[in-house]
Design brief:
This protein has helices at 23-29, 31-39, 54-59, 76-90, 100-113, 127-130, 134-151, 163-172, 216-227, 251-259, 273-278, 293-300, 313-316, 331-342, 345-362, 365-377; strands at residues 15-22, 43-49, 63-66, 94-98, 117-121, 156-160, 179-181, 202-207, 233-238, 264-267, 281-284, 305-308, 323-326. The protein is an alpha/beta fold.
């Protein structure tokens, strides 16, 4: 998407470096912003683990720097000093760190590398508060305090995606002048368009990395219940396990659900528009989110949503407006909410129309790109 307005043009060629763990995540969640920054006059690069998306990144005119940080517990000192060396070599004017681990490492590394400005997108903060790991739970206050200290560095901006995270960081001591609200990563509303409902069975889709804390277990429990009550309904999982994540669901568990005839597993889909056009309802019963892209895309496609009343989800789903919110970890309430939409096509249509309007008003790529470029431009002297 081209965003070449006068207020976003830089006065000189500034070097902007993104730090992202995985190349697929950069393509999915930050590439449109990087392209817009390049078109606005920035020299843009991304440091990330290179897997399958190098061609996409390079064809977009973004310089690709292979750089790998373990998503599990690696050697913190080795990883940190590797990052310092990268920053000293590249000498960016602005670095944009994405997700909690990279914010923690990167916000400290800029001091050792004498980088003048940083943007920290705190997208994984909720993990600290839903983890059952006793070490994480015990260390959460210390991590939050340390994070707040790092985020208050001069010439630092913190991007949060929902009011709950904004409040949490403010209570931890992050200065309000440092915090910027950018709700989500945006969606191309010209691509994610509504379509007429398909005739036949009602299809309920959960599209996400297949992790327990995405509420997949509750989704399966609700599907098992509804299969006994309703004919002509399908429950579909779209996505794959993420074995680098301790909350990942094992493939054999998913295969067992399939054998029970509870769910269908479609795996990962690169193009989500055909998936949404096959769906009647989208469901994401997560325990906590930043602001889930899949729900913005689903709403843009005019689909009603059933989700949990937790940070991130309730920003895109307005209860009884464009979807239904239920308590987290409550498969009975989830089942009841899904049943309400399964049995009422008029309600599905009404909520889907409202969701599309909401995305056009607040969550389009254009909104997100302009807000992000304005943050970068705060550092231009």
């Amino acid at each position: 998407m081209s965003v070449c307005m006068e207020e976003t043009k830089t006065q000189k060629k500034q070097k902007l470096l993104f730090l992202v763990t995985e190349d697929w995540y950069f393509v999915s969640h930050r590439l449109s912003i990087a392209i817009a920054a390049r078109e606005a006059g920035y020299e843009v690069a991304v440091a990330t683990r290179v897997a399958k998306h190098a061609d996409i990144i390079q064809k977009a005119g973004i310089r690709l720097i292979p750089f790998e940080l373990s998503r599990r517990a690696g050697n913190p000192m080795l990883e940190f000093w590797a990052l310092v060396k990268l920053y000293r070599r590249e000498k960016p004017d602005i670095v944009h760190h994405v997700a909690l681990k990279l914010v923690l490492y990167g916000a400290l590394a800029v001091r050792f590398a004498n980088i003048s400005a940083q943007v920290n997108a705190v997208t994984g903060l909720g993990w600290l508060y839903i983890s059952n790991n006793p070490i994480v739970r015990f260390g959460c206050p210390l991590i939050t305090w340390f994070l707040a200290h790092l985020l208050n560095f001069k010439n630092s901006r913190v991007i949060v995606q929902n009011p709950d995270d904004e409040e949490l960081l403010a209570k931890a001591g992050v200065l309000p002048s440092r915090i910027r609200m950018v709700q989500g990563v945006g969606v191309d509303t010209d691509k994610f368009l509504p379509a007429s409902e398909l005739k036949g069975p009602v299809c309920v889709v959960l599209a996400a990395r297949l992790l327990w804390d995405k509420g997949v277990g509750e989704f399966v429990d609700a599907a098992r219940d509804l299969k006994q009550k309703v004919n002509n309904v399908r429950f579909i999982l779209v996505g794959n396990p993420d074995l680098d994540n301790p909350a990942s669901i094992l493939e054999e568990t998913i295969r067992a659900w399939e054998k029970e005839n509870i769910v269908e597993w479609w795996g990962h889909h690169k193009e989500m528009v055909p998936v949404f056009h096959s769906a009647h309802i989208v469901c994401l019963p997560s325990y906590r989110e930043g602001l889930p892209k899949v729900l913005i895309e689903a709403a843009s496609c005019g689909l009603p949503i059933v989700s949990t009343d937790v940070p991130g989800c309730r920003e895109i789903v307005r209860d009884d407006y464009n979807g239904i919110l239920v308590p987290k970890s409550d498969s009975v309430s989830l089942s009841n909410a899904l049943l309400r939409l399964i049995e009422d096509p008029d309600l599905r249509a009404k909520m889907g129309k409202r969701g599309r309007e909401l995305v056009l008003d607040k969550f389009s790529s254009k909104h997100v790109i302009l807000k992000t470029l304005n943050i970068y431009n705060e550092f231009i002297k």
